[in-house]
Task: structure prediction
Amino acid sequence: MKKAEEFYNSALENYQKERYNACIFDSSQSIILANDAFCILNIGKRASKDHKEAIKLHIEASRGKESKRDIVTIALEKRSEYGYTEKDGGEKEANLLLIRAKRFLDWVKNSLELS
Result:
């Protein structure tokens, strides 16, 4: 979770400095790292570099309870889309993912406290 929070803070700083592609990438990375922590705690596994595996493990780690699969899916898509292509992200896109990252990190932290 420490790295997830570090990437979130970097995303926030990048957003404030209008570096929207970096904000999107860092927001996505914070979600991915928080998802790893969630999966490790609940099932003792984390995903390899396979995006489908990350989503599958998230669902498994949720154990039939509330899942944030949609946020993990979006984060993986946005990381690839804005981190590895010519496409540029804008303020709206960066802001939306930044908010989702904050909510996801808070959800994971809450899940970790309840375990």
Q: What stands out?
A: Helices lie at 2-16, 20-43, 51-62, 69-83, 91-114. The chain is about 80% helix and 0% strand. The mean pLDDT is 90.
